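TA notes. Do not distribute before section.
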Amino acid sequence: MQRTIASINMIRNATPLKPRERHRRSAAEIARWKKERARWMASLEPTLLFQRLFDHIPGVYFFAKNQSGHLMFASAGLLQRYQMSDDSDFIGRTDYDLNPDTMAQAYVEDDRHLLAGKVKIVERIELWWDRQGIPDWFLVTKLPLLDTRCRVQGVMGVLRRPDEAERQLPVFQTVAQAVEMIRRDYAKPLKIEEVARACGQSLRQLQRRFQSAFGITPQEFLLKTRVLAATRMLEETALSVSEIAGRCGFVDASSFTQHFRRRLGQSPAVYRKRMGTGQEVK
């Protein structure tokens, strides 16, 4: 029986192969190829470079900023996370335009160390929100962007969700229980002191560990969780602002509106109208 091409390819691909022996190249040859690479790079369209690959890697998000902190590139997944259809709404914005001040401040502080040459790489855990508005943590790696004279001209980075093994690391475990409690009980009259006590930590310990892991306090995490839950209700229901405030754990409509405006830059009424729900805010 003749073997098919598919079976032949399967056998060929399954055969372990040793790399070819490579001749040692001279310094002059290496320099020549580096010069050729520079010429080749200069001929390419800058907006169509390798960052496009991140559009096709599930769960990995790419960004690049210039020296002033303005966003220049973002992968498609990152645009979707910010509910943007293309980079025309992304380019030129800063972290403060897209994130709560406490979060943005932590990101900018990392960038400052990279831009000043104090560190060559930043690896940290940051708090982000998924497409459903549920807060979660991501592993972030940032590197400086260098020009042809090796001067720092910006920052680039990738974000990804940690795998199961990484979630068992101590830095996750110290705040994991608190995060789950807040995500589960944000609609209740929850107090961070009670969360800390339930996790066997003092309030100061929990705040310090939250700040270390996410760059924000557990109080800000709780408020952001409530605001994001409220955005979904504004989009999907005809509930009044007072009803939404009560269902999301705010003491009253005034407090809800204040926190909503502070984090999203607009009132619940404006947000609902902009999202095109057609519901009248009472």
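Switch to the second chain here.
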Amino acid sequence: MYDNYIFDLYGTLADIRTDEEKPYVWEKMGELYGSMGAAYTPSQLHAAFRRLEEASTVQMQRDAAVFGQRDVLAEPDLTRVFQRLYQEKGVACDRQSARMTAIFFRALTRQLLRVYDGVKETLAELRARGKSLYLLSNAQSDFTRPELELLGLADCFDGILISSEEGCKKPCQAFYRRLLERYDLNPADCLMVGNDMESDIAGAANVGMDSLYLHTATSSQGGGRYRPTYQVTDGDWGKAADILLGEDGGLAACTNFGKEWAEK
């Protein structure tokens, strides 16, 4: 079947719920900034954060267009935004201090984080069979790398690409191509596994990869421009494991697109 398996993280391997709009979050962030000499009210801090986040995205898109990369979807590094929030108040802030601020913010906003049942066992079995595993995640590095450690997934992959580190995100081809080029992968030998029809399924199709769509609680509703090669519509990781580890019969049993889509 496939030599390389590429996974989305949130909503695919792990369930996460966050709330960045809670007043409590911005009250505590305001206290943190104030304690460092950067005085904001909670509402001022919230507004400044969103302003700088948007400005960073717009500037990155403009820079990409200048270099002829009009299809790039820019992904700013929010740790730099946290750093600039200090600097706008005249407070010096190095990268490590900004990183700790980002981690504190994520801890405040995170309401749930857990690995789906069966994920670790499936990844371990794929590796035992000599398959290569990669993570391709639309995420913030200083949120996600600590969470990979918390989830016990940090050592499960042969390569990890996080959008904030690369400056672009799924479904743009640039993000997928970086993975393929960095690890010398043939798209025909790869299967993309994700829970988003646009970012994961359409993105994979655009670079010639097959895909497995896993519909989970955080998946968006509705279909996309492309149909996945395989799909599990009820979020059952046991069925996903059957597809990833099974023979053709197992694949056929776990898709609802009919024989022509199931039997690869």
